[in-house]
Specification:
The complex is a heterodimer of chains A (about 300) and B (about 300). With about 300 residues, chain A is mainly α. Helix content of chain A is about 75%, strand content about 0%. Chain A contains 14 helices and 2 strands. Chain A has a two-stranded antiparallel ribbon with strand order 1-2. In chain A, β1 and β2 (about 55-60) form a beta hairpin. In chain A, α4 (about 85-115) runs parallel beside α8 (about 175-200) and α9 (about 200-210) packs antiparallel against α10. The longest helix of chain A is centred in the last third of the chain and has 36 residues, at about 275-310. Chain B is mostly helical. The N and C termini of chain B lie far apart (about 65 Å). The longest helix of chain B has about 35 residues, at about 85-115. In chain B, about 70% of the residues lie in helices and about 0% in strands. In chain B, α5 (about 85-115) packs parallel to α8 and α8 crosses α10 (about 205-235). Chain B has one domain: Orthogonal Bundle (MetI-like fold). Classes of the chains: A mainly alpha (about 300), B mainly alpha (about 300). The interface between A and B is large, with 99 and 96 residues.
Chain lengths: ~300, ~300
Amino acid sequence: MARRNRAEGGIEILYPRGFWQTLALPGVGWILLLFVIPFYAIVATAAGRLDPIFNTAIPEWNPLYWQPDGFVFVFERLVNAEGVFRLVFMRTLGYVLSAVALCIALGYPVAYYMSRLSGRARNIFLLLMILPFWVSYLMRIFAWVNLLQEDGLVNRVLSVSGFMEPQNWLEGRASTVVLGLVYGYVPFLILPLFAALERIDKNLIEAALDLGATPARTFLRVTLPLSKQGVLAGTAIIMLPMFGDFYTAGLLGTPKNAMIGSLINFYVTQAPVGAAQSQGSALVIVLAGIVSVLTIYYLFSTARATREATQR
Amino acid sequence: MSEAALQVAPRPSVALRMRGWLSNPWRKPRFLAVLSWGFLVWAILPVVIAVVFSFNAGRSRSTWQGFSLRWYVTDPDLSVVNDPILHTAVGQSVKLAALTMLVGTPIGVAMALGLARWRGRAATGANFLMLLPLVTPEIVLASGLFLAFAHLYKSGETTFFGTPAQLLGHVTWSIPYVVVVMRGRLFGIGKEYEEAAMDLGAPPVAALFRVLLPMLAPAIFAAFMIVFALSIDDFITSQFLFSDEGTITIPMLIYGTGRTGENPSMNAVATVMLVLTLSALGLAALVMRAVARRRGGGAPTTQKLVRFEI
């Protein structure tokens, strides 16, 4: 290794031995102690046992003594059609999938328009597009709590225009929660999608049009396939936090709209008696499993796309 | 043109004209334009309205009753300054953000430098490790930290929930962001300046501290600001690791009482948070832009300030 660096004219070796490792060490140590070990603590608690005296969950650090009880509890309730977990799980899946579909339906045209802008209009649009990133997510959802209250502006506008009767928007409506999720996450989808659409070679589109394809056909056969990676990246970026989201439903809905995140929050931190903490940990692992399948699929398809692009 | 002709051709209805205008294939893509600019209004207006009503003179969050600073300072019981719950939350948020900034940024900067130059298999592993928190949902990390602090990181019966645990959690989150921001800048600078310094006789470590670090100063400043903003906006980690009323942060307060709050004081607290985040990120963007402009060209920096997490 050292020889190759010298051959390349690397200046690393002029530094004292182990200098760069020492610089990286605090960060690496921090992530080991406060990311890797906590992650192990989840597994250890999920597979842990009950303290017979205090009736609380105790993590089991030695894998040889791991118990499947927490996982069995969670799986029974996920498989059983009447279990609360299954209900909440299916609800979360429904909310997340409909919110992602709406995000793509709304975000794609906006990203497409943005990629076609130029000059001043483009700079202004980009700046305004980035603003939501700089506002706390909870603040943005809270803004809708203001608007959707019974005497809020939405109901006032509706009753003045006579378009619709005033509604109880915040009383446990799935549609309100899904729209809240769309509002909260759609900017995170638009920017990667915009980056992908912007990279498309304009000559390809002109070539398709010159060869007689209609604009619609050009879009379907050229633009859309070339932007697939962007859609995928954006979807992965919004899906990961959406699966763990419990605050959007908490602010815009009632307990009827609780998502998996609310169960985790409750089982892990608020119900420390009995086996709850162990069951909550098992639930976190199930969630992490789902999310990592998504992440791995995304990473693989990105790697494949890169490989194909370089081979061509 | 006769009078009869004028009477025969009636003006098309508004709806019909709208449709003709929208479906005309020779116009510019107006449908997309209307949708996209409408989207921006939809994305920004609710927050603007929430901020405007924090200056409402009355108790309503939807009827404008005149301008006042009542919910910030003048109300004797309910304003941000006078309600102990509100100003404790502001204090805790700022305290945590400042501490996270001071602890997390130096660790992240050192790590970015180390990882950029350290070669070999162990370095690849360290790089991978650094990226893990970025692809993990925050609720998973927060659950893990909660369990670790509940069962492992404690001395006897004393746990560290509250400010210490929240600080450690926020720093864990911010390290990868600092590394990503710094790495972009490091690759932009290259090794020529250090080499020149060493050719002129500077010992390597001096070249690092007296040449490379000053050149990185704007990026380091930006990293400080980004970490501050990340910490101010954080909700899940603060929520999982808090201990009592004294360690409730602004986002936690919004989550806890946003639905039941009956006056605009919550809007005022949220606005305080918004101003803190916006000024930190605005400063970071200004400094990075000024540097990019002075160097001529350079990568667009706005993209680096975009955060893909809440």
